[in-house]
Amino acid sequence: MSELVKNSLQIISKISQSKCGYLVRINNSDFNIIDIWGESKEKFQSLNNSLLQIKRNSDVEFNSVKELPELKNLYTDNSINSFFIQEVYSFRERNESVYILLFSEIAEAFTEECKDRIIAALTILSGQVKELLNIENYDVGKAAGDIENLQITSEGNDFLSEEDDNFKVLLEVATDLVFFLDKDGKIVLVNEAGILNLEYTSDEIKGKHFLEIVDLDFSNSTSEAFEEAIKTKNVTRFETRLVSKYDRQLAYEISIRLISKKGKINGMLGTGKSISKIKHFEEEIRKLKPKIVEANRLIKLERARTRKHESLVEELNRLKSEFISNISHEFRTPLASIIGFSESIELDPDLPPEMKKEFNNVILNEGKRLAKLIKSVLDISRIEGGKISLDRSTVSVVDLLLNVIELNKEFAGQKNIELSLEHPTDEVTLEADKEKLSEVFEALINNAIKFTNEYGRVKIIANNLFREVEIIVSDTGIGIPEKDLPYIFQKFYRVSRPGSEIPGTGVGLVFVKQMVDLHKGLITVQSEAGSGTSFIIKLPKNIKIERSEVKS
Ligand code: ADP
Fold first, then answer.
1. For residue 448, which atom of ligand 1 is closest to its CA?
2. Separation of alpha carbons 525 and 473, rounded Å
3. How far is the CA of 144 from the centre of ligand 1 (A)?
4. Whole-prediction pTM value?
């Protein structure tokens, strides 16, 4: 047995982790063992029946000895648990085949991964076997791959003889598949490196019809491509799937062109590029695509969220600068009155005392208005900083409302607005901060008058409920458009009323909401543009009011 074949066999035994490896040459007609390398021939006589059975099933691969009792008996001493059998070479012309047998003591030794490794190594072994048997027994020709010795049909020879040596060199150096088919479509010439991917040697493939190595599913499309090449006489490119010697399916991109001379078809010259990897990557990309789409969607969402956040910050900044301009205006108006009337008193010593008194009154009222404004702005920032606490006491709600109504009577009178209070006869009390609650009522009642036209009505209702007190401040004023309703408790928010802008700062309702929250109460608003507005406050009667945080 050639050293080379022996080494290969040993390598295969090693990579498959099998105990020992054998090569068996059998006759394909009677399935008798002609030769065995690695053990004495006699020991394997019992194999014949098994091989016959295997061949009949056209299945040459087993990984369990259970189905072959003879072998099991033979190897009980060596505790052989599984074996592997695979065709290494088939000599069609001699009607015989060579098989490799591997034995292992590990029951599950021949896994798929292990088989893949063995099959890859078998390509080399099969070439060596062919060479070994040719030299030892038949002494035919030289080593495979020697292009001078390729058996080329007459057409192939014609074709080659007309080309210079460069073509032969090209065949040697080309790593892609290069082939020449005769006019019947049989392979007459192929390069060694190119055919290696299909696990054949050039000798093995020669004489096969090209369609024999094409996957059945692709034979129609491949035939059509060949017809196209014959018809057009142009280079025709197509994709197909070839089947390797050991049944691996491989995607190929084939280019073919008809070779003819003086109207006589010589054959077909072609190249093939394995695109299995590309196909594999394309498949991976296809699988990844939905994930990329999903990722892009998430990025888009995230971007939109950031944009929303940015626009919120922008909106807040806009409201802030609007607030500064509004509040400056609010400050400037009372200040202008204070300065103007003070100057008048100062510059005119002859001013009648009644006028002086009236001017002083204006100065005092405007000063108070200014102080109130500054206080509410400061209050908001103090509440937000958690620096405000409630000074609890038992408060008579009706008394408190009457007091605030009294303070706003003059303002309502100026606009001929009817200001009324509806309340139960029994005492309505709350555990609350009297001053803060008074400011809440003041803000709501003042707004109600401010946003109600002349001869309108502002009605305040106090309801004594089971656990809470309900206060409704309702007016027949200009109302709040529906789109603005969700924002009116936001800092600096003011309903835009182009052409009839009513001065304000957008902090009054913020303060109201913060105070109601501090009292663990609830404030809601119902309004319709042009019809009027109702603010409804519900405050718990006896809740333990603590210094607490405010929802903004
Ligand atoms: P302002 O100082 O601008 O009055 P507020 O916080 O008190 O600020 O009110 C915010 C906005 O809510 C006002 O600009 C106003 O348009 C609207 N608003 C408040 N109360 C009423 C009401 N009773 N009728 C109509 N609109 C009102």
1. 23
2. 10
3. 99
4. 0.43
